[in-house]
From TrEMBL:
SMART domains: PP2Cc. This is 2C and cyclic nucleotide-binding/kinase domain-containing protein. Residues 23-37, 56-75 have a biased composition (Polar residues). Residues 417-426 have a biased composition (Basic residues). It comes from Seminavis robusta. GO terms for molecular function: protein serine/threonine phosphatase activity. Pfam families: PP2C. Signal peptide: none annotated. It comes from the Eukaryota.
Length: 434
């Protein structure tokens, strides 16, 4: 997740990390590399194993999100469950930075069943932190955004909320959460923040609403009349590659340049996804260097238009919709939307197996891009990877003859170009330019 620091950022950042507030739900941030004990049950009342630190999954009531179990013995965190016809699994794998073996997983995720006291509603969220306090930022949003949304929704007294009211509530909750993060004295978000991609499912209405801030992503797996599976985007990455997003931040005084361009190397072909991406810079300095145009936190970048206003969309579900996937760019930087839903179809009887397969495939692709054969290679480098797979009703039945078996499968080498890891450039990149 791309936020470039600068020497100014280094000065602003608090060198003495303050003690983190204990989260209200369990965290998926840890530092070791051992295989976790996984939760494989599909019962919504079963909690992940408690590691003795008191941070198990919270109760499933009005606002308490189901996060993942804190486990200092694990580099991966897993939660799965079901309620009625909906089954889901969440998987988060800590990345690897060859220059910082102790770097924590900066991703977070949470699930709230029976959201806002409605027995058929869900709220899922994935948050990709970045910067020095990125792990704290993503955990803060994970813990505080769902209850803020419940409060905002409660201001509408209509028995049947309109999509406009839901969108307005999501807008308010994100902006409030962003301000609370700015105001939090224990987290310096000057040059740190998080993305947020979330799905609000209203089960009784068969309606989903997506809210997106940043470049994490939501996709939908839907079947066509011929029974084949197609991936449909439910969000658009908010980056300077989008002309309307670039224009918006420019109106706030930002410059849009790649690392190469700001370093005076001329045209670095920043429209080519395999090259250095365009970033947001101040007019008078080499900061903040964000590769996204919206986020929560990032107080300095916010002055340049990098704000927390979500893009929202709602969709009425039909029997054709089979899967919803939320993931950070650690997944989508190396896998296409279609590949992800194809893996869901391949493992259509178990969302946990789908998550496992997708994360493992992403891991392989990161290593391949770094020309590494195994994880122990000192050059091995990959982003944090977090994924939620949501399986909707009768996902394993497609058509009269289960045509899912004929759905297009992923090739061993995908035809689309693989984007190299360009978002993890840190302070050294900018120091070299200076």
């Amino acid at each position: 997740m791309g936020c470039a620091s600068s020497s100014e950022a280094k000065a602003v950042a608090n060198d003495d990390q303050k003690e983190n507030k204990k989260p209200t739900i369990s965290s998926n941030q840890n530092n070791s590399n051992e295989k976790p004990a996984t939760t494989t049950t599909d019962s919504s009342t079963t909690k992940p194993p408690n590691n003795g630190d008191g941070n198990g999954t919270t109760s499933q009531d009005t606002t308490a999100p189901k996060g993942c179990n804190t486990n200092s013995e694990s580099s991966q965190e897993i939660v799965c469950g079901s309620l009625g016809p909906v089954r889901y699994a969440c998987w988060s794998k800590r990345g690897k930075d060859p220059d910082d073996a102790s770097k924590p997983n900066q991703d977070s995720f949470a699930v709230t069943e029976k959201f806002a006291n409605d027995a058929t509603d869900f709220f899922w969220g994935v948050y990709d932190g970045h910067g020095k306090t990125g792990a704290d930022c993503s955990a803060f949003v994970r813990d505080n955004l769902p209850p803020l949304l419940v409060s905002a929704l409660g201001e509408h007294f209509d028995l049947m909320l309109s999509t406009e009211q839901i969108h307005a509530s999501l807008q308010k909750a994100h902006v409030q959460c962003n301000q609370q993060l700015h105001d939090n004295p224990s987290i310096d978000d000057s040059y740190s923040g998080t993305t947020s991609i979330s799905v609000f499912l209203q089960g009784s209405l068969q309606r989903i609403t997506i809210a997106n801030v940043g470049d994490s992503r939501a996709i939908l797996g839907t079947t066509l009349p011929d029974g084949k599976l197609m991936a449909l985007p439910l969000s658009k990455d908010q980056t300077p590659r989008r002309p309307e997003e670039a224009q918006r931040v420019k109106q706030h005084g930002a410059r849009i340049l790649s690392f190469g361009e700001i370093n005076g190397d001329g045209d670095n072909n920043c429209d080519d996804e395999d090259e250095d991406p365009p970033r947001v810079w101040a007019q008078n300095g080499k900061y903040p260097g964000t590769a996204f145009t919206r986020s929560l936190g990032d107080a300095i970048a916010e002055r340049l238009g990098v704000d927390a206003n979500p893009e929202c969309m709602s969709l009425k579900l039909s029997d054709n919709e089979k899967f919803i996937c939320l993931a950070t760019d650690g997944i989508f930087d190396v896998m296409s939307n279609q590949e992800v839903v194809d893996y869901c179809m391949k493992h259509r009887t178990d969302p946990l197996e789908a998550c496992k397969a997708i994360v493992n495939k992403s891991h392989e692709e990161w290593l391949h891009n770094e020309e590494c054969e195994h994880d122990e290679d000192p050059r091995a480098s990959y982003d944090d990877m977090t994924l939620i797979c949501i399986f909707l009703n009768n996902v394993w039945q497609v058509g009269d003859k289960d045509k899912a078996a004929d759905a297009p499968q992923t090739e061993e080498v995908a035809p689309h170009e693989r984007r190299r890891r360009v978002r993890q450039k840190t302070l050294r990149n900018l120091e070299e330019m200076e």
